Every structure is written in C-alpha cells, then in structure tokens.
Amino acid sequence: MDMAKHEDLLPQKLCERLLLLYGTKEYRSLLKTISHSLPTTLRRNPNGSASDRFDQALATSGIMTTVVAWYPDARIVNTENTTQSIGKTDGFQQGVFYVQSLSSMIPPLVLDPQPGEKILDLCASPGSKTTQLAGLIRNNGEIVANDVSYIRTLKLKANVRIQNATCVTCTNLPGEKLWTIYPEYFDKTLVDVPCSMEGTIRLDNPKTYEYWSEKKVKELAKKQRWLLRSAISATKPGGTIVYSTCTISPEENEEVIDWICQKEKGNIMLEKIHIPGLETQPGIVSWKNHSYIPGVQSCIRIRSSDVMEGFFVAKIKKIRSTVHGSFE
Predict the structure, then answer these.
(1) Is residue 7 pLDDT above 90, yes or no?
(2) Can you list the positions of beta strands (E) in 197-277?
(3) Set 123, 167, 246, 261: catalytic member
(4) How far is Cα of residue 272 from the mean position of the Cα atoms in its chain?
C-alpha cells in the first residue's frame, strides 16, 4: 500500500494532526507501521491453579508464543490464532490466560499494586487491567472496578469471574462522582479513561478510525479532566494515581495532566516512569499554541509499532488532601 492510499483511508484532519505531531519522516514511518494488524498477545493469570497450567494450555491449543522481555507474564502469539479463536480455547475459558494488548498491560505495572492495598479501577470494563491488577496482588487486597455503562459492567463481571479475580467488587457508577462515595479511600487508583483511541488505529480496520473527529477529541478531553480529578480525590494522601489513554492526542494526554497539576497545585506531583526493557518517549511540552508544564516530560508515550499500540501513561503522587467539599 503506497503513501497516497494510506492517507486516503484516514480523515484528512487526522492526517494533518499526525504530520504536525511527528514531522514528515516519522509521520511516513507511522503510516507504514499501522498499515498492518497487530499480532495477538496474551497475559498469564498468576491467580489460583491457573498459573501452573499456562504453558500446557498454550501447547494443547497449538499456540506458539514469544516471551515479552519487559513483562515475563506477557506473550506474543506467533501462530495465526486470532483473538476470537483464542477466546474459545479451554485455556481462556478456564482463566489460565487473558487476551490483552501489550500497551494495555503497562498502566497496571506502573501503578505497581501491592498485596493488602485498596485499589480503584475507575473506568474498568472490559476488565483487562482489573484482572491484571488482581493477579499482581495475588487476590490479596481490595479492588473496586467501576464502569458507568451497565452493559459493559456485565462484561467486566464476566471477565472477573473467568479470571478468578476474587478480590474484585464491580460497581456501575458515574466515574466523575465516585469520589463522593469513596473520599480518599484508596491506596492506588488507575484511571484508564475513554479516549479517541488514535493509538489503536490500523488501516486494515476502518472501525478504528471511522468515528474519529476533532470535535470528539475536545469532548473527551473535557470528560477526562473530571474523571482524573475524581480519581485523585478518591485516593488517600500519599497514594498513587495512574492516568492512561490509548490515544496520541496531546489534548487528551499532556494537556489533561497540565490542567490537573495547575488545578491541584501543591497537592499532587508527577513521578518518573521506568519499566526496564520497555522503550518509551517522554511527554511533549507543547502542542499548537499551548505550552505545558515541564513536568509532563515525566509521563511516557508508547509509539505504535509492529507489536504495540500507541499509549500514554502518567504517574501522579498525591501529597495532600484534595477533599474539601464539592469541586469548583
């Protein structure tokens, strides 16, 4: 597929934004990268007896994999198995492993939950990160997994059950208001917000870009701010909040982080992120006519690649209480 055909598939405004964000050389490289599908990737479930049956379950299903260097529980599927076909295997149905994109596995690792902690997954469905968090603490702790959609919460509950995530309680509440029910209750909070999903775009799948628009980006950015602020107020002073998106839009990433840092100045601070073996890039400090605080460089961007989706992750330390009544 040549460059002109690449560009003809995507909305013109999106192409213009990508070119401005990356420059000509990297923009062309990105178009080439997203011209083909990502391989299916899996995550081992360490909870219960499932952890001892991972390799056997893969072999029984004829699934050949490669271990991911920066996360030994993650595997890249080498065979032609699709997500749909793997979802029908005994290994998946019995909760031995879970189909999840590699980039999606990063935020729980950054949050670094520990056994015994109280953890919130604010926008949890379908449960990929929720069940990963449960695995990381070996079901020793308390996880509240929330989603505003009733239908999506049903999917969340199903995956939690299949993955034997017994420490998880599922709720169906508006994320922006959840802090009023759990004011400064959690040790750690993950807020993987709804986004424009620019990082998931693959040219052979029109569903990944056909609904994209600049208007949608702006609407989502506004929603993301209040979800993040709720996440911070649901977290104890001294706690950690991880904000993530599967988009590359600065309005939904660095701009949201810049906003919250200025809104909660003195109450929070950004922390550096490092996962050994994982290639990342720092957050950007300006976009169009906006300049962001230098601290956004502590955030990480994951570039779309042959095996990874584009992603953004920020790690926030809460220093002081933010609960003083209603938001203003």
Answers:
(1) no
(2) 235-245, 268-271
(3) 246
(4) 17
